[in-house]
Amino acid sequence: MKGLYDEKSLSPKDGVLAPLMKQLLESFTDGELANYLEEDNASGNPNSRNGKT
Question: Residue 27 and residue 32: Cα distance in Å, rounded?
Answer without folding.
Answer: 9
